[in-house]
Amino acid sequence: MNVSRPHRPTRSASTSKSAARVAPRWIRRILTAAALLASPISVAAAAQRLAPDPCAGQPDAFACRQRRESRAIDAWPDRVRRTGRDLSVRLDSGRGLTLTDAAGTRSAAADSAGAKAVDFVFRDYVPRANVYVVELAYADGGGFLIVDAASGARAVVDGEPVVSPDGQRFVEASQAGERKAAASEISVWRFEGGGAVREWTFAPPRDAPWDPADPIWITPSSIRFTRRVSDRAGFSFSETAMLLRRAADGWHMQPAPRPSPPSQPNPSSPPSPANPSSPSSPSSPSSPSSPSSPSSPSSPRAR
Fold it and tell me: Which of 12, 227, 234, 296 has its CA 20 to 30 A from that of 27?
């Protein structure tokens, strides 16, 4: 019996335009992975970042975030607890700090709860800084909440916080329009006095905009991040690796040095023979002028 293959529809103009919009996203992932492999960032440094949001863009993103929060809470059962709309974190004093979701946000109709309705989603506890990281999910955007476990002090930032290896600071980068951020900027915060103080910040000029992305600490005083420039349509972009260094007079930003490629021998040229008259040559154990040489001084290859 002959089985006919299903007809493959031809790609229409609208499909081609849609593919053109999707393609840069795949290119961005490839370029980001290549940049990480080429950079001297260690695996431990890359682990500073919180786990990427697997729920972004999903039809039921709210339920997905609830499942992800459950896994994060399971990692710290003695410190974090979720009871209905209440998210409780344990402070060092022994008392709990409770964050209560706005009415209706713990339901499938969260997006219709209003612009001011907030949903607190536990993301992680960072022992080296003794802080909790909580994601803020508004109906029209979001952000992050840093809770100091020692004092209970709270700080709200637009970008995902990345804590330094020594636990003294954190860096966060936000892009204009992402989570309703007003502008693109990158900031370094310092934990001080039981709270967080913004130590340095930079916002690209409006006449030459670019987005900071993917900050990672290299050392407690240096940060590597990506400077991303998009065209007006947003279909293409260019990326430059940037470096932040802390000095006595503050933080300084500059392009990151490119890693030098390893030198490779030229396969077309044969290896040069060893110099027989060289003292380090295996065929000449000692110099011809050495008095301990058992061979004739004028015969470098004497047996």
Answer: 12
H or E stretch including 237? Answer: strand 237-247
Residue extents of the structural domains in the chain: 23-49+165-259, 51-159
DSSP one-letter code for 276:
T
DSSP summary character for residue 270: P
110: which DSSP letter?
G
CA dihedral 73, 78, 84, 88 (to 10 degrees): -100
Among candidate residues 197, 192, 158, 162, the one with its CA nearest the CA of residue 178: 158
What are phi and psi for residue 41, nearest 5 degrees? -75, 135
pLDDT tens series, the chain, 303 aa: 444 444 444 444 444 444 444 445 555 555 555 544 444 444 444 455 555 556 766 666 777 888 889 999 999 999 999 999 999 999 999 999 999 998 655 544 444 444 566 889 999 999 999 999 999 887 777 889 999 999 999 999 989 999 999 999 999 999 876 655 557 999 999 999 888 999 999 999 988 889 999 999 999 999 999 999 987 666 777 999 999 999 999 999 999 998 777 777 666 666 555 555 545 444 444 444 444 444 444 444 443
Instruction: Please choose, from the candidates 43, 42, 50, 256, the residue with its C-alpha nearest in 3D space to the C-alpha of residue 162.
Output: 50
In the chain, what is the straight-line distance between the N-terminal and C-terminal CA atoms, in Å? Answer: 84
pTM flag (> 0.70): no
- CB under 8 Å to 302, separation ≥6 — which residues? 295, 296
Beta strands in the chain, from DSSP E residues, in sequence order: 80-83, 86-90, 96-100, 118-126, 131-138, 141-148, 154-157, 162-163, 169-174, 185-192, 195-202, 211-219, 222-230, 237-247, 250-255
